[in-house]
Design goal:
Elements: H1 2-48, H2 53-105, H3 112-115
Helix pairs in contact: 1-2
Length: about 120
Amino acid sequence: MQEMREMRQGMRAKMQQRHEQMEAMHQEMTQELQKQLTALREHAKAMEGITDEKQLLTEMRKHQQMTDDLLATMVEQRVRMHARMKERHEQMRRRMQERQQAEEQAPEGQGHEAHHGGD
């Protein structure tokens, strides 16, 4: 009984740790996007005052590159997030299979049924 309680506490601690890591990653990603978006908006405002066509064309190319960089960051972050989620789901699936196998291999009275009073 004590062993099960400790196992659950360990699982909760791991879940909490993963949640905190995911939150930190979300915040980092959001900050990066906000930084790029702010720079893009500031550049757009600066472009408003340009009257020289050659200079404007140069700044428009720069603005296009900044926009491309922002979109690339968004795509990269999405890919990274999906990969992380897939990895977590695989880990959970493996753990569930391992537990199920362990329960199936446990001697009578020590498996999952014993935990529920043999029902």
